[in-house]
Amino acid sequence: MEPISGIPAFIAMVAKNLGIFTLVILVVAYATYAERRVSAFIQDRRGPNRVGPFGLLQPIADGIKNILKEETLPGTASRFFFVLAPIMVLVPSLVTFAVIPIAAPLPTPWGVVDMIIADVPIGILYVLAFSSLAVYGVVLGGWASNNKYAFLGGLRASAQMVSYEVALGLSLIAVLMMAGNVTLTEVVWQQQQLGMWYAFPLSLAFILFVISAFAETNRLPFDMPEAESELVTGYHTEYSAMKFSAFMISEFGHMVTASALMATLFLGGWDLPGSWDNAFWYDGQLISGFAENGAPIAAQPAVWKTLLTFAGFAAKTGFFLLLYIWIRWTLPRFRYDQVMALGWKVMLPTSLGYVMLVAMTILVLDEVGVQYGFFYGLALTAVSGAATLSFMFFLDRGRTIAGAAAHTSQKIEVKTIPTAVASEDAEPAPAGD
Amino acid sequence: MSGAYLPILLLFGVSVINALGMVVTSHILNPRRDTPQKLMPYESGMIPLGSTKARFSVKFYMVAISFIVFDLETIFLIPWAVQMRDLGWSAFLAMSMFVSVLAIGLVYEWKKGGLEWD
Question: How many structural domains are present in chain A?
């Protein structure tokens, strides 16, 4: 099968661009709906259920309302930067999705179409660069509002986002070592080759990445920048109507991108169990693997494979989105010094040490002569599992998990009022009153 | 190779148009009735006291400087990580020295109280 080229390739590019963009916006809209419904479910109430069947048209109603509402612009704000900030936050959150492959290549009469907007050779570096651009918009919004809450929220957001970016980048290093490339299509392909998803052989990197991703998107338990009880809503206190909506969309856009990224890096992306869907461009050919003698085997792309792998990718991304919402209504918020201590004193040294551990294990495995495959993955899983367990044990130190277990096994001491004293003092009520 | 970046440019254009469209449409459609109270910065109903552009804690600078050091470290680690399996033990040794120098820096900063927040 040949890759698509010429005029059809251009049409496919525009179609993919608009299609994936619309898809991301739709997912963002329904993530806001899902958040309200799931939070209602967790808190034993109904949530939005009036607009359309099951309240499914609620995001559209919210959008129309936000466009038509009056906006306020504080008299002391810097007008230009105040308007610029929501745009600067919104654009990076929507652009980052470009390098994430969403399904197996799609065969068409004109050639094979990759289901990714841009398969650029810088892959993950592009994601890191663009996702960290959002912090400028956040700080600018807080600063331009000329409001003390907003200013503090913006400051906190910037410090928190840069702190966790270090751990985020370092936990990615382990993935790059395994994949040997920075493009996300190659990361997916190497997971297919390994025969297992990186969440197992790189379990500690997975945990560190998930924690950092929560902190980067400013979601609970890391939502210090908009801690309602302290800072009203933080950096977007002064924003209303559609500009507030822009901040909201960008927050959920970051969530969607981070979820898709976690699915791609650690849960195999669009890959489903089994090797029937393997596909990768190798020397201008779409191959599904290598034969014993090293000759490439041609892949058989099919429309149903594309659809099925897309469903798999959507399910994995949806799982992480649900995890975001679930954790929001499960954990209490950190204190700010706890957030910074976790970032610098726990996440950074752990990820640094883990990178060196993985590097050493990979080099030893290569030295011993283990083939890159399932057993390679199993050996790494054992090493990473030990690292993860000791990390958990160190973090816990008998306080959280063990503490909760001890608490439930404790006998509950029921305190009662000493009845003997009470009966002495109390006058018996006269009978027949 | 630069053709690979064309779709990103297109997506960037679509996103910017979308963001601008949201701001401009709502500016055209929504009513504006400014009153002095509405234009006041919201500080929980109080009349704002003092300047917003006051000096803030030096710790934010500390975090920013530490971030630059360790983010650069990450950037230096990426090329090695990609090529690690071909480069072998000698490169691993070199990177171990590089990482341990930075780890010593982190320990120093920690002991000096640069990571304390209160």
Answer: 1
